[in-house]
Specification:
The chain is an all-alpha fold. It has five helices and no strands. The protein has one domain. The structure holds heme C (HEC).
Length: 125
């Protein structure tokens, strides 16, 4: 037969370890809630320089390009990995875009990385 002290110790054990098995946060609820403050400006920059292939509503659009990002999508950047965001920065720079555009797009990429680190997406390419 168990002593009263044993029952109390058992209850304490349960309370202590029971609290350690708290379930991890539901991944469907850790979506990025903050919006990148440079997103619309960055979209405008890409639309004029990259839109011919990366806009689904244009006849010149290319399937492989749209799979990376589609500027007609509200959250156009969500399909891009961090590597692809920097690749976009490099491509913009390679097109000899004006300095302000490159700086703005760089701010966008940095803010995007910070947002993703603060609230990682479920899958990262
Ligand atoms: C002439 C059509 C065309 C234009 C213009 C274009 N792209 Fe693309 N882009 C593509 C295609 C097709 C792919 C998919 C194949 C590939 O990766 O090259 C792609 C892929 C990419 C990728 C993914 C690369 C990777 O390593 O995964 C990035 C980033 C990208 N484009 C950025 C840009 C940016 C930024 C511009 C404008 C400065 C631009 N693209 C302009 C056709 C284009």
């Amino acid at each position: 037969m168990r002593s009263a002290a044993g029952i109390v110790a058992g209850a304490a054990f349960f309370v202590f370890f029971g609290s350690c098995t708290a379930r991890p946060p539901d991944p469907t609820r850790v979506a990025v809630s903050a919006v990148n403050p440079h997103r619309d400006e960055a979209r405008g920059i890409l639309e004029s320089r990259c839109g011919s292939c990366h806009r689904a509503d244009l006849p010149t659009a290319q399937g492989a390009a749209l799979r990376v990002f589609d500027l007609t999508s509200l959250k156009w950047e969500e399909t891009m990995s961090i590597r692809q965001l920097w690749s976009a920065y490099d491509r913009l720079e390679g097109q000899a875009a004006p300095r302000e555009e490159i700086v703005t797009f760089g701010s966008f990429v940095e803010a995007e990385i910070n947002l993703r680190v603060a609230s990682p997406p479920i899958q990262q390419k």
